[in-house]
Amino acid sequence: MTGEERIMQRLDRIEAQLAPLAESMRSAGELKDDLTPLAHGAVKLIMKELQDVESSFQLKDLMELLKQMLRSVRSITYSLKQLENIIDFVTTLEPLLRGSVPQLISYLDELEQKGVFRILNATLGVRAKIAEAYSPQDIEEIGNGLVALLGLAKKVATPETMELLNRFAALPEKIDLSASKEVGPFGLLWAVSNKEVKEGLGVVMELTKALGSLKEAAPPKSATSDAAA
Fold it and tell me: 131: phi > 0 → left, psi -120 to 50 → alpha, else beta; which?
């Protein structure tokens, strides 16, 4: 093989190796030609938009922002981690909320249908009226009185007391006041011979004995007057 042939073979190999590069350069040139109009349009759009903030934006402000971000890298990292935790929490809580929120809405709607919120609103109005009519000291005294009344109600709520009160409440049905007449001493003597009158007098005697305990429980009058003073 002559030297010319070897040179031609080398040139062929070099040409084969340069062909892909030439093709790449040709493709890059075509891409540049395609992107040039788009780049010019984008630059014009950016320039137009920047005109709106030109009076408020300064390059030193951007540098100050970059420096502040660099100083706050730890805080930004911590905030991002906390944000990730919040997202995980919301993701975990979302299935529960999907089931509980409709139930809560249904429960609130049921309360609204029953008038609970209207009653609460009216109660607030009553509280406002009480605040206008009474001082805090009066409210405190009323509260003490209510506590005492609750203690009295507890005593009244015993079965024996309730039975006695029920019997007292039934008395008006058995009494005919239109048939009552004047009774003198002899009438009393005759009435004592009546069995029902005797039973009534027995009840009165028992009540009278019980009323005697009121005197023992009552405080001395002087002590009461001193306390009032």
Answer: alpha
Question: How far is residue 218's CA from residue 215's CA, in Å, rounded to a whole number?
Answer: 5
| Region of residue 105 (left: phi > 0; alpha: psi -120 to 50; beta: else) | alpha
Q: Tens digits of per-residue pLDDT, 48-90?
A: 777 776 667 677 777 888 888 888 989 999 999 999 999 988 8
Looking up tokens 């979302």 gives 94
Question: Token pair of 151, please?
Answer: 């203690």
The separation between CA 75 and the C-alpha centre of its own chain, rounded to angstroms, equals 33
pTM score, whole prediction: 0.34
Cβ distance 191 to 183 under 8 Å?
yes
CA atoms within 13 Å, Cβ hemisphere of 145 = 6
R_g of the chain computed on alpha carbons: 51
Integer Cα distance of 189 and 79 in angstroms? 101
